[in-house]
Design brief:
Length: 205
């Protein structure tokens, strides 16, 4: 019987001494924080170790929640929160079956959507757009197929986007920032490799 493949980040999520993707927030979260509604409702999708949510909470955001498919990730998030004496709403959830109960002011997702099929992440973005308040913001990063999926993710990256595909999904929103580029990446226990990425910061009109 073939063994189920496990993505590299699970080992880091189980280890309190290393961080899979660093402890600092993603640059767009830092750069655009002044545009986000501090008293608004925030959701991070595929949060990993929830570095963005911790950063927002440290900066006065209170109504925040985050989810990830990985139980190891969410356990680690709860441990970090306990250590810092922070109450955090983080839960295990597959983005493909997320049930939308609220409308949000800010939705964040970095490096996650390409791990589900294209129809699934398109549906997720369309539902997320619908469940965002007017003036609300999305900060989304997805990998594209401009560069072949590297060995560390090739078994999981089933939904790599086409260049510009993310931007097209937001054609009816105000584009605050959009970037497409290739970068060199490195994680614990993996050789250096390249990813092609598209990033967007967009506001609902
Ligand atoms: C490359 S990591 C990025 C983590 C975090 N966003 C960051 O930037 O540090 C991708 C994350 O997506 C999560 N993920 C993958 N498929 C998912 C799904 N269907 N629903 C929710 N999370 C998922 C993984 O468990 C993993 O934590």
């Amino acid at each position: 019987m073939e063994q189920k493949k496990i993505p590299f980040w699970e080992d880091s999520y189980k280890n309190d001494n290393i961080s899979a993707f660093g402890i600092n927030p993603n640059p767009e979260v830092e750069q655009f924080i002044d545009l986000f509604n501090k008293s608004g409702r925030v959701l991070e999708v595929g949060c990993g170790e929830a570095k963005n949510i911790f950063y927002l909470m440290e900066n006065g955001f209170k109504n925040v929640s985050a989810f990830d498919l990985s139980e190891n990730a969410i356990n680690k998030v709860h441990k970090i929160a306990e250590k810092r004496n922070i109450q955090i709403n983080a839960f295990v959830q597959d983005l493909c079956t997320f049930e939308w109960k609220y409308n949000y002011d800010l939705i964040i997702s970095f490096g996650t959507l390409h791990f589900v099929d294209r129809e699934e992440w398109h549906k997720f973005i369309n539902d997320a757009k619908e469940h965002t308040k007017i003036g609300g913001i999305h900060v989304i990063q997805i990998f594209t197929d401009k560069v072949e999926a590297s060995d560390d993710i090739k078994d999981f990256a089933v939904g790599l986007a086409k260049e510009g595909e993310l931007l097209e999904l937001y054609e009816d929103w105000e584009i605050i920032n959009h970037k497409e580029f290739v970068f060199e990446d490195e994680h614990p226990n993996a050789p250096k490799h390249f990813h092609a990425t598209n990033k967007i910061v967009a506001r609902k009109r």
